[in-house]
Amino acid sequence: RRLRDLGIAPGVFAPGPLNAITDVAGVLVGHATVSEGATIRTGATAILAHGGNIFRDKVPAAIAVFNGYGKFAGSTQIEELGEFETPIVLTNTLATGRAIEAIHAHMLAQPGNSRVVSINAVVGETNDSRLNDIRAGRPDISEIRAAIDAASGGAVAEGAVGAGTGTVAFGLKGGIGTSSRRVAFKSGEVFTVGVLVQSNYGGRLLVDGVPWNASPTCEDKDGSIVIVVATDAPLCERNLKRLGQRSFGGLAKTGAALSNGSGDYALAFSTHESVRRTPERRAGIVMTPTLPNELVSPLFEAVIEATEEAILNSLCMAHTVEGYDAGSDKPSRVEAISMEALALYKAR
Amino acid sequence: RRLRDLGIAPGVFAPGPLNAITDVAGVLVGHATVSEGATIRTGATAILAHGGNIFRDKVPAAIAVFNGYGKFAGSTQIEELGEFETPIVLTNTLATGRAIEAIHAHMLAQPGNSRVVSINAVVGETNDSRLNDIRAGRPDISEIRAAIDAASGGAVAEGAVGAGTGTVAFGLKGGIGTSSRRVAFKSGEVFTVGVLVQSNYGGRLLVDGVPWNASPTCEDKDGSIVIVVATDAPLCERNLKRLGQRSFGGLAKTGAALSNGSGDYALAFSTHESVRRTPERRAGIVMTPTLPNELVSPLFEAVIEATEEAILNSLCMAHTVEGYDAGSDKPSRVEAISMEALALYKAR
Amino acid sequence: RRLRDLGIAPGVFAPGPLNAITDVAGVLVGHATVSEGATIRTGATAILAHGGNIFRDKVPAAIAVFNGYGKFAGSTQIEELGEFETPIVLTNTLATGRAIEAIHAHMLAQPGNSRVVSINAVVGETNDSRLNDIRAGRPDISEIRAAIDAASGGAVAEGAVGAGTGTVAFGLKGGIGTSSRRVAFKSGEVFTVGVLVQSNYGGRLLVDGVPWNASPTCEDKDGSIVIVVATDAPLCERNLKRLGQRSFGGLAKTGAALSNGSGDYALAFSTHESVRRTPERRAGIVMTPTLPNELVSPLFEAVIEATEEAILNSLCMAHTVEGYDAGSDKPSRVEAISMEALALYKAR
Amino acid sequence: RRLRDLGIAPGVFAPGPLNAITDVAGVLVGHATVSEGATIRTGATAILAHGGNIFRDKVPAAIAVFNGYGKFAGSTQIEELGEFETPIVLTNTLATGRAIEAIHAHMLAQPGNSRVVSINAVVGETNDSRLNDIRAGRPDISEIRAAIDAASGGAVAEGAVGAGTGTVAFGLKGGIGTSSRRVAFKSGEVFTVGVLVQSNYGGRLLVDGVPWNASPTCEDKDGSIVIVVATDAPLCERNLKRLGQRSFGGLAKTGAALSNGSGDYALAFSTHESVRRTPERRAGIVMTPTLPNELVSPLFEAVIEATEEAILNSLCMAHTVEGYDAGSDKPSRVEAISMEALALYKAR
Questions:
Q1: Which domain range does residue D48 map to?
Q2: What is the DSSP letter of C110?
Q3: Which of A268, A282, D26, D178 lies 20 to 30 Å (CA to CA) from residue A160?
Q4: Is this prediction's ipTM beyond 0.85?
Q5: Can you give the pLDDT at residue B217?
Q6: Quick one: C228 exposed, middle or buried, by C-beta within 10 A (0-12, 13-18, 19+)?
Q7: Which residues in chain A have their CB less than 8 angstroms from residue B297's CB?
């Protein structure tokens, strides 16, 4: 069950109908879960900003880095140009190169891309080596492409799936989690903020502010998190960066240790059709709608809430996984958070 | 009373003896509280990294900016050189220029500085105009110099004093707060992290993780915070920056809205004698002790805790203040947090 | 005479009619030259993005820092919000606080600003202590206000005026210099890039690429430069930052040593009326014209050229100044570049 | 012939004996040139900071980005930790993923790395699609590993080799170039700065300051440059970043257009044995030698000179290449710079 099913609902803004990043219209998510034998527990998750040719119709975006101990690919060009042009792929640390190759193969094969010679592949990763033989070269390129090909709207599978298959958070089984918030403006407009996380970090777990003491391992400090933030609000890339940065507020509220070894990245983008950078718009001075600085704050609060809930969803929705600890060359097992304890927990 | 006196103690690390930034040996703090008539509620707070000639013996330092809606002076040179060379002064927004003048006057007058022709004054500010006639030119230069001259070790006055005289946090009276943590390393070394804040921001107040509902105004979202972090650990400026950045984790945990209009700055420095940049050390290759990346994480957790507690101390130690709202040209009154409610609160 | 009068014309783009920052329509420049007795050789220069109430109608802007050994005020808020809201004042290093006070006084007194309680004053500085008793407190606040009040369109005085009164570049008399370039787009639009510099740095002087050997002092390495870049092209703040950064290309081409002690800042802004941030536009979603990434490159080349020429103009237009070296407490004299040598030079 | 063989010697500092990055003791360079049939003109170049296990004995480093239109891999972790842990590989844009895979394969196979589960591969790239069928998947992983395996000290092959096989600069054949400078300090120490570039950018070519008009294509503006800077001076990562940044001064002096589409990256590292981060040094407080801010400026000038000369060497040492323009699907040919014209040129 998801966090909200347990009656725990961080914050005050209402979620969208799916309480998922796919509440932001047009966003597609696909997983490839790669679990084989006793040692392979990994995968890939693809997030597509829209269903068209993203290389052609680029998407305004920004990246915020809280702690850069990670191999996030594509960051400098996103920063420089304020946009991205490929699917976003999340996977494991040592699959970054293969994920770039998979994105290249996918993009080069798109109709209309036959003369494309430069692609800025966007890849986030965390290290699933506590459950996965990360040195074994999985997911491979075709498995990663499968995640892109599987991308669809609608409900998003969470927990030990896709890029979350082998990740660990607070010593518990983490993985993929998602959540969303809707923000109504005085003007009558309603914008949605959606968040998807790959949780693989640690600290001292707080569930909606209260310390989690039901499992002794919950003080594990290692790991990283990649946070993907989508919104249909027409934000410029500067305010997208600020939006992404606020997601770290949600991260901190879960009790993150924000340790040296954590790779904490937030990639934020706008799906608003009128800010999309089509070939026509890139050919001359273009009129672009922009939500001004003075009005962005509610979105900032919304992303704090959605990130906290997405992370907790990644824990709630995960199941216990047995695998292989590649760093110590031993079998390993990581328990899911106890739903019984969580139910009691809320009842207090 | 301070937060800990109420039995509320965020985190797991132990504070230093004073639970204050002055637990970091050598750090001095001075306040100038400027309260006059019905409309002047302002002041300045000075933090000195050491008691010597700071221009001569510069201090390794770094600045982290979470949201840069502020007038922090001296930031680019701190970033470029990894050091500062003056007292740190906190004051109100429109006193920034006078604080620079005060620091200049103080530094030019120090023995040994008679030929100094360049000074990088470090000034943080938040906007106290909800209680103070900020347009009236106070504190003036001599009042700010008085804060520097008053700097001493020992216990630090908190709440509505110095630069916190007129500040507001979560709709309640905020101001100056401080806290510290001691971190023992396996090598036997014990390092201290001390934090001092000027709280003037908002959001939905959380007290050690639990929403504060005792006062309706606690959802005020406006304002800023300046966070000063001192440590006696021998950190390089890169790791000082990371340390400062982690203080925003503590900020987020208090329920900060991290809004557009907030100026959220953290200045971190090391007081370790061997990393101080004396004229001799600046004249040739110097051997410097450094705590490596691999060992900094406990300090990161400590600063999250100390920042959360320093902020809550700034609320607990403040008293109700009546003043003047300069933005609306009306009398104003900001209540202190209710200690009775807080006592009950903890008892739950 | 200006560089171009000598037949030396860096680059290929044509300058505007004044070959000055004021070719960008609406930009105003004012100087206050403060020269008194044997020791005071300083001043202030104000650049106004437009003639209206800048606090009310804010200007999209960005700051680029090549080497941050300087006291530039206002930088973090410009970076965060992508705008500024006051006149830009250039002055000497130790006048930064007074310049902030002067800007505050000016802004608080503007019609419509009677309830303003927060101002982000923008102040650039270089150190004129080789010719000026910088410790003596000049220019004072009223002298700096005079520079703001004197701001006008039209030709711009260059050389040893305003903030350039006491500055030194390449061991020669530097100061204020300006230049502009016009860029015609295929769409028929013509945009102007204007640059104004306060030159006070060093290296090995190159005049349009050729080493200057006519004066032995031209290898002086010390000091800083502040570069102000205006354009009427509708650039977003991200592309304004990139534009500002390109000015450092022009700086490098003059033979700058880019030394540790240099404060090299470029502030870039757009005067395009439709990107100005009026109260109306800040109240809701606004349609803004933007020149896309794909079309900005010619402006980048233009600013490289204009910066190089503005710097050389600051040298050509300066006269020899006798003053006081505050660092050594001795009289000093800095020669202007020899126009005779320069004329011969070109003839080669 | 190299630039200096033509009597053209930018700057005033003396080069090292090889006038190459390998003058910095311990640095190794290897090329894999991949030229096949009519359409494959590409390759890889590896730079190793030392000959040992780089993952184990990490190297202090920093990255400076002038324009981030590129796919540089590993940048955020270099920035966060101030170090790198793998060979540096330069290759073509669409080979970035394969280069990461090659580095992973190389590192995982090193003695002592059998339990390594996280690697931050460092890959720079420029786009060689004007001469190479960049979509064809070359160099492949084994070809890239061959560049790493080929790394050695001594003279460095330049021009159309390795990662420079298919690159174009100023419309002329560019490629790999290298240069070095020796800087003597008053203390008697002599440090070396070595630069290696992969030139693939444009502008209006200047040869030691003078416009190159001998070929009409020299105004081509497209492309990128990756600059690798090595020094044996004991610089901290902050000063390494500043050193890297100064290389852009050399870039600007060659007439670079610094255009929107350019990916201009400089990676700087120190080979000084005592700043290397060995497992022992990463286990406790370590004493590290550091050249202070006050003494770094001559190294800054040296890197400006060496970068300018390395770029010009990449042109001088290249030969005319016939290949395939992947963007237009046509055969292509890019001429080498005319040595005859260059010889006359200098004679002026």
A1: 3-347
A2: S
A3: A268
A4: yes
A5: 62
A6: buried
A7: 221, 257, 259-261
